[in-house]
Amino acid sequence: MEIKAEAENLLKLFERVVPVISWGEFGGGGQIYTLPVVVEMMLLQRLSEHGTQQEAVHALLGGRLDRLLPNSKRVQGGRISANTGGYARACGRISPETVEQVCDQTLAALSDQIEAEAKWGRPVLLLDGSSVRLEHTADILKAFPAGRNQHGLGHWGIMKWVCLHDVRTGIAQRPAWGPMYGPEAVSEQNLAKKVLSRAPAGSVIIGDGGFGIFAFAQEVIGSGHQALFRLSKARALSLGGKSLPAQGEFLVCWKPSAQERKKYPELADAEIKGRLIVRSAKGFRDSLYLFTTLEQEADEIVALYGERWNLELDLRTLKGTLRLEHLHGKSQAAVEKELLIAVVAYGLVRAFMATAARRAGVDPRILSFTQAYGLINAMSPKLCSPNPVLRQQTYDRLLDYISKAKLPQRKKKRSYPREVWGRGKSFPSKHHFGPLPKTKSK
């Protein structure tokens, strides 16, 4: 991982990435809430403890965005309203397409500053999908219908999304999303095809068994990437033979099944040459079946696939620490912008962690995201100070603290069992109440 240039702080990064554009160019008006100001406030809102609009407005009033504010009479006179109405309306005027551009520009700037770890001369990206719960509004349910089970129709809208994260730094590409249920429901494989177009040329794409199908593997190879996918046992037996040993490596020529040829006629004559690796790996209930087009040693391939677990931790962090488990926007556009801003915020924290790890000579993955997130949030006021000496001192101290915020390495097993508790988000049963009964006056 090579550090080309270190961002002094979040605001400096946004000054380079987001141009100072007036609202007039976006069909709106306003002297304070320009595009950079609103995007930065959305970012600070996502990085704050409670994530409220009031916290973002307080950050604006506290001077944390002074460098981005226009030179207007209201700003000079200190007459910025403390109410959230103006900020809320400004957020609504930004289109999801504009936030997508901001997301792509910011992540590209991060990639320009911090080159992703290139294993065997290639970027290595982890691929997976997840879901997020949405509010119960007519617009949301139309775009992202609720699921249904044996108890009936659910209450919350559900969005499915797929992402690509760098194996070492954890910095993400812009995700792809769609409805998880309903007539327009999309599969993870179709969403994954969209994010493939944003992967650096010649990347290694690592996916679990959900992506280990011929049609998607062909898409990866056709896009100029290398593939490393886990296969189901049935697919591995079909590819390598009816009796596979517990350990082994085989040269194979993967061709679509009869069902796949029927579903994808254009793939009827396609084939992929690669290797099938079988291992009895620790941590896996059954044997591990891997298909890859890489040429490295089998043990290195198996070890690399083991790092796919990092993406599971990344998704947990996004849904927990950055509150992506339940988005509270009341419209399709609002939740899409929330998701994009969360990915930008996540990438910025990961960039600080990668910079701190580089300075300390350690692996970024051993550092605690939650601690880095808290430190950045706590020190950001001083990072925005007009005093350049104080800014630089705070920046250096922040990186030093982040480099020491290492994840615990437990040598012994826990003394208590780990259990999963519900999060208390279930919607109560419906109750219809009629008018209150009349009472006789005494």
Automatic annotation (TrEMBL):
One Pfam family here: DDE_Tnp_1
Domain Transposase IS4-like residue range list: 120-346
Gene Ontology BP annotations: DNA transposition
Superkingdom, taxonomy of origin: Bacteria
Region (Disordered): 408-442
InterPro entries: RNaseH-like_sf (IPR012337), Transpos_IS4 (IPR047952), Transposase_11 (IPR002559)
GO molecular function: DNA binding; transposase activity
Biased composition, class Basic residues, residue ranges: 428-442
PANTHER family: TRANSPOSASE INSG FOR INSERTION SEQUENCE ELEMENT IS4-RELATED (PTHR37529)
Family matches, as NCBIfam families: transpos_IS4_1
Protein name: IS4 family transposase
